[in-house]
TrEMBL record:
Residues 369-434 are annotated as: Disordered. One of its GO terms (molecular function) is ATP binding. Residues 222-365 form the Helicase C-terminal domain. Pfam families: DEAD (PF00270), Helicase_C (PF00271). Residues 369-409 have a biased composition (Basic and acidic residues). GO terms for cellular component: cytosol; ribosome. GO terms for biological process: response to cold. It comes from the Bacteria. Residues 410-434 have a biased composition (Basic residues). This is ATP-dependent RNA helicase. SMART domains: DEXDc, HELICc.
Length: 434
């Protein structure tokens, strides 16, 4: 890579010596000002892929020239922290605008710092646009990080309106781990011609094992508790909604499984604590929703557990991408019934890669546990029933033997004559004499 000296110095300080495929393949197109769709698995360096070439070509003093949109507050802060050292080395200012921040202070900092790079959540960005604090006509590059999450029905018009007010030769970058109908046809929203850089591997790559654990809804809690006793168990457990997560968390809080929670309410410190606790082995699992888990990077994660099955292939890919990073071994365990098994095979396009797995004691195995033939099971059941009947009969016989018979009648107690004096006898009421 031909990063400039300032960028290379920071990379060396971070001990980064190699670029990832998404970084190397998208670099020159972004540097040349082209609009790019960049698709790459989670954890492959997409932030640096779009961020570093933009920082290299940015000009100090070009206020609000780079706008980066993020789907969550946490991601916005995370991206700002990741890019800040490189921007500083180039004489550029960065700033995060998030919904949880103090709006008045953010407006003051926009005036004071005059940042060239603004990383924002969608809601807060348009608050600032409405108040004329952020001006689309100043932006020469707009980045949508996790573009498939941002380009949804409620926000497409707002984002399209923002890009319409940008200079005609401005650059649009759409990055994410999965695509969507909009990212497949972005020209309809933005009008720009796009270059596609898709480096996503097949999700059936050999180091990630896709497994299905047959279990009824009523037994999922018990099975999840048992999973925690599997050797080296550390997992992200995915739920389809915050309500589902909270119901399970409330019940599991009284069981042996130790877990942290990432829904949508946790602040940055709570998220970092949960991730740190999992990596240190203080907890067995993190309970998470799809949205709350975006941007989460946990090294050497052994398992992803789909407590609630994902609703789309894109969601399955996002979840599966949390394990098996940097070619490490990982396993995705999905829980459900036979109908769910067939549906997931088709939905995630896994085919024979999705295999059933069995929880035997404290071990997971793809080998179906041995079960006796039906006739032998019936014979065994009959033997057990007969043994129970015989045992009951013997118990009753013992109790009957203890009941007194005619030959062993109990002698009646001898009547005790009361020893009363004559004058005490018959002193009851006898009525009046006539």
């Amino acid at each position: 890579m031909n990063y400039n000296e300032n960028i290379q110095t920071i990379l060396k300080e971070q001990e980064i010596t190699e670029t990832t495929e998404i970084q190397s393949r998208s670099y020159q197109s972004i540097k040349d000002g082209a609009s790019v769709i960049g698709l790459s698995p989670t954890g492959t360096g997409k932030t640096y892929a779009y961020g570093l070439p933009l920082i290299e070509k940015a000009t100090p003093g070009d206020y609000q020239s780079i706008i980066i949109l993020e789907p969550t507050n946490e991601l916005a802060v995370q991206v700002r922290d990741a890019l800040q050292p490189f921007a500083k080395a180039q004489g550029l200012q960065t700033m995060a605008l998030v919904g949880s921040g103090n709006r008045k202070r953010q407006i003051e900092n926009l005036k004071k710092k005059k940042p060239e790079i603004v990383i924002a959540t969608l809601g807060r960005l348009f608050d600032m646009v409405t108040e004329n604090k952020i001006k689309p006509e100043k932006a020469t590059a707009l980045v949508l990080d996790e573009a498939d999450d941002l380009l949804v029905l409620d926000s497409i018009d707002m984002i399209g309106s923002f890009s319409d007010d940008m200079p005609e030769d401005s650059q649009i970058l759409l990055f994410g781990a999965t695509d969507s109908e909009t990212t497949r046809n972005p020209e309809e929203v933005f009008g720009n011609a796009f270059i596609l850089v898709d480096v996503r591997p097949d999700i059936t790559k050999n180091n990630i094992h896709h497994r299905f654990l047959k279990v009824s809804n009523d037994n999922k809690l018990d099975v999840l508790t048992r999973l925690s006793s599997v050797d080296d168990f550390s997992a992200i457990v995915f739920f389809s909604s915050t309500d589902s997560l909270e119901r399970v968390a409330q019940t599991m809080s009284h069981r042996s499984l130790k877990f942290g929670v990432l829904a949508n309410k946790e602040n940055k410190m709570q998220r970092q604590r949960a991730i740190s606790d999992l990596q240190k082995g203080n907890i067995d699992a993190i309970f998470a929703t799809d949205i709350a888990s975006r941007g989460m990077d946990i090294k050497n994660l052994k398992y992803v557990v789909n407590y609630d099955l994902p609703k789309t292939q894109e969601s399955y890919i996002h979840r599966a991408g949390r394990t098996g990073r940097m070619d490490a071994e990982g396993t995705v365990i999905s829980m459900g019934n036979n109908h769910d098994f067939r549906d997931l095979k088709k939905q995630a396009n896994l085919g024979d890669q999705l295999q059933k797995i069995y929880l035997v004691g404290h071990h997971l195995t793809i080998d179906k546990p041995f079960s006796k033939p039906k006739k032998e099971q019936e014979e065994q059941s009959t033997k057990e029933k007969n043994a129970y009947i015989e045992e009951t009969r013997e118990s009753l016989k013992t109790k009957v033997d203890k009941i007194p018979t005619e030959s062993k009648q109990l002698k009646p107690k001898k009547k005790v004559k009361k020893n009363r004096k004559r004058q005490q006898k018959n002193k009851g009421y006898h009525g009046k004499k006539a």
